[in-house]
Specification:
Number of strands: 12
Helix content: 40-55%
Oligomer: single chain
Radius of gyration: 27 Å
Length: about 450
């Protein structure tokens, strides 16, 4: 089930994937704790027993918090724990003769398992011929061709791995599981043309070329944080969520010419794409918490939005809310909030107190632009409730992907003190008025509810 949920393209609902991981983790934990309880020593040795359990917990915490971010280039802790758990699965006892004789069969079985499973997984997940033949033979299946091929390509290796449990040989199931997991992980990585990958406390950043060689992409975990055309003729053109024909482009086009905002603040640097909109005579401040993002965005080997920028720009490292608080009141004409990703939601940037801070740093006719594209949560009702409470003008714009032009689908919200401050956006039918959703209260520094806006 985990193989299907993690690696296949079945399009499972988010609650389904969430449930698979939770149930899997629960079962692993129950078996491990059950084995600890089953093998506990006599009462006289329980003090030492509990001491070593505590030591194990401390070592695990140190490994996850301090060692793994330095040793692993990606989030390998979870897969490693799953493999270790599979190696420790109680396989039962086989009756053995009194005199144990070492034969060629045992090592051949342990060595042959990964040597068979790894090529099998690679072949099935890259070649659809087996699934196609079965689908043709089994007429009348209630599955689409895509669903059936995913079930076959990922289900067969999983069943083969599960079958190893019946051989009742310790470690064999874990070796088989590791072979399948490693093969699928490596294969998934090879599909990406990775240029640079780096990890720190804030997560994993990956710079990669798109499959057709058109773009350089920056991803944080599984979330795209920006991309740039590799063609020198288009490299100054903002792409992805920030396309000129998308919501962000429409906002910058509205506040151009005589209405151009002299000073702009952006929370969240990404690849530095929004620097493409800043021109001569303007200033743009990027507030970024992750120093690794700064190193990548300012390295012309990867992205050149900042080096090509004609405006004065600077990057201010630190938590956006804390560092922005130090800026003079009314300094900016436009504040862009772009610090949200599918991997983590910094809730403290969306509270009543946070929005009050942003508005205090915006000039009287200034605008707050919020990027809320997200696969898992819908933040629009939260912003609608905040705007309603303060009596602000608020609009939402959903945009569709256009693969040929390098535009990705995105969702943006614009907030201003009055309708007049929105300019033409208030009359643009694509920018919809927002109504608060019943049951969604105002988020504050003391209260928030992510589950209420989760896209189940």
């Amino acid at each position: 089930a985990l193989f299907l949920a993690d690696f296949s393209d079945l399009g499972l609902p988010k609650w389904g994937v969430f449930s698979v991981h939770l149930v899997n983790f629960f079962m692993v934990s129950m078996v491990c704790h059950g084995e600890i309880a089953r093998t506990r020593p006599a009462a006289g040795h329980l003090t030492v027993f509990y001491l070593w359990i505590s030591v194990g917990g401390v070592l695990g915490g140190i490994f996850n918090s301090l060692v793994a971010p330095v040793v692993f280039p990606a989030l390998f802790e979870y897969p490693v724990v799953l493999v270790l758990a599979a190696l420790l699965v109680p396989a039962g006892r086989r009756a053995r003769p009194a005199a144990i004789r070492l034969t060629w069969k045992e090592p051949a079985l342990y060595l042959g398992t990964p040597l068979v499973l790894a090529p099998l997984v690679h072949h099935l997940t890259t070649d659809i011929s087996v699934a196609h033949a079965l689908h043709t033979f089994l007429i009348g299946l209630p599955f689409s061709w895509k669903t059936f091929s995913m079930i076959v390509n990922f289900g067969f290796p999983a069943l083969a791995c599960a079958g190893l449990l019946f051989l009742k040989r310790p470690l064999l199931f874990g070796i088989g599981f590791a072979a399948i997991f490693v093969t699928m992980t490596v294969q998934k990585d090879l599909e990406l043309d990775i240029v640079h990958r780096q990890r720190n406390f804030f997560g994993v950043l990956t710079v990669s070329r798109s499959f057709d060689g058109s773009f350089m992409n920056l991803s944080h975990g599984t979330t795209l944080h920006g991309k740039q055309w590799l063609s020198p003729f288009h490299r100054r053109e903002p792409a992805s969520y920030y396309h000129r024909h998308g919501p962000a482009g429409e906002v910058f086009a509205e506040f151009d010419g005589t209405r151009k905002k002299k000073r702009i603040a952006v929370t969240g640097l990404g690849a530095g794409t929004l620097a493409a909109y800043a021109g001569t005579g303007q200033e743009i401040d990027f507030y970024e918490i992750n120093p690794m993002v700064k190193r990548i965005a300012t390295d012309a080997k990867y992205f050149t939005y900042l080096s090509d920028c004609r405006a004065r720009w600077r990057i201010i490292l630190g938590d956006a809310r804390l560092t922005l608080a130090q800026a003079p009141s009314g300094r900016y004409g436009l504040v862009v909030l772009d610090a949200f990703s599918s991997d983590s939601i910094p809730v403290h940037l969306l509270t009543r107190e946070a929005v009050a801070l942003y508005l205090s740093k915006i000039e009287p006719s200034g605008v707050l632009l919020v990027h809320i594209t997200n696969r898992y949560v819908d933040l629009a009702p939260v912003l609608a409730r905040l705007a309603q409470e303060q009596g602000f003008a608020c609009r939402l714009r959903d945009d569709e992907r256009e693969f040929e032009t390098g535009k990705d689908g995105s969702t943006w919200v614009v907030i201003a003190r009055s309708e007049r401050d929105l300019g033409g956006l208030a009359r643009n039918g694509a920018w919809k008025k927002m109504a608060p959703r019943p049951g969604i209260g105002v988020w504050t520094d003391d209260f928030s509810n992510l589950l209420s806006v989760f896209k189940w």
